[in-house]
């Protein structure tokens, strides 16, 4: 097991990335992250902070990729919340169907307070001089998604704020987050980079109009494209709504969550390999940290 994890003579990209991630996980645990606290690992990877609020000042390309990955996860969770909000409202109030733009407008109007600000001003105000925490914003969204429930209005406000904070933090390419996502996700624009590009175009519009553009393109249209592709290539029906004769109908709520079980699995494997215990990093884990460095 250790030979596989370390892969000392393996110089492939996967092996280098695995060793580097192992180093970062062990280092964060020895600096205060509790073994098994996956949210704390995500927070440290993303915000570069330790549980005691001290900065995690490690520099690593792998760490940059993990931050980009987590930022993309936040964006996808926000959109999944919007999908359930749209399908839930359609089910309950418009069983015969409703025009997608009208449905989007209702979801946004019920959750987003009226504002005279532009999208850019509103998003910037959420992060200016505050300790806005993406993990706190995403928590109620994940809770409703995990239960397969239509998100409450205040939950959707958290999802919209999350998109705004992501745009304010990363739209300018800070921390290499956006370039990494653009490079890894490809040119089709269904990643966080695609969402940010839509918001770039709408940044001078009112917040509600900017969000309406995101939901129309990245929830309604993209969902149809992706579901249609899965149906044609694999015969798998994954539609959560249909759009026929200009009306959105047949809405189905779904259960969603993070797509990164890898961190949980990795900490389990590190325990099995003797690098971790309930008390933290073992002496063998410390030896690993001394022998290698994150790339």
What descriptors fit this protein?
two-stranded antiparallel sheet, mainly alpha, 13 helices, 295 residues, globular, single chain
Low-confidence stretches: none
Q: Tell me the fraction of residues in β-strands, as a range.
A: under 5%
Strand segment count: 4
Number of helices: 13
In angstroms, what is the radius of gyration? 21 Å
Output mean pLDDT: 92
| Structural shape | globular
Largest sheet: 2 strands, antiparallel
Q: How far apart lie the N and C ends?
A: 22 Å
- In what order do the strands lie side by side in the largest sheet? 1-2
One letter per element, helices H and strands E, the order comes to: HHHHHHHHHHHEEHEEH
Account of the protein in words:
The chain is mainly alpha-helical. It has helices spanning 2-6, 13-30, 38-47, 61-93, 100-111, 119-127, 134-146, 153-170, 177-185, 192-201, 207-234, 262-272, 283-291; strands spanning 242-244, 247-249, 276-277, 280-281. A hairpin with a 2-residue loop joins strand 1 (242-244) and strand 2 (247-249).
